[in-house]
Amino acid sequence: MAKLLIVEDDESVRNFTARALSAAGHTVETAGDGLEGLEKINATAGNYDLVLSDIRMPAMDGIEMARAVADTFPGLRLLLMT
Predict the structure, then answer these.
(1) How far apart are CA 65 and CA 23, in angstroms?
(2) Which of 6, 11, 24, 34 fits 65 for a cystine, CB–CB 3.0-4.6 Å?
(3) How far is CA 60 from CA 18, 23, 43, 45, in A?
């Protein structure tokens, strides 16, 4: 299955989404905002099959994070949601 990163500031949404995707057999990591998400992406050299991110978050929003990721890891798949 896929290795996923969920970037979501709402803890209940983040946990629910992570549990559902884990139950489907995926490996799931989470981050509470765009800065934490970017740190995890950089720490793994972009080694995720998909990054699923909220758009509106404190510290760094999903769009800003996606722009930073696209410059460094242009092949990394990102799905922005709200």
Answers:
(1) 27
(2) 34
(3) 21, 29, 17, 19
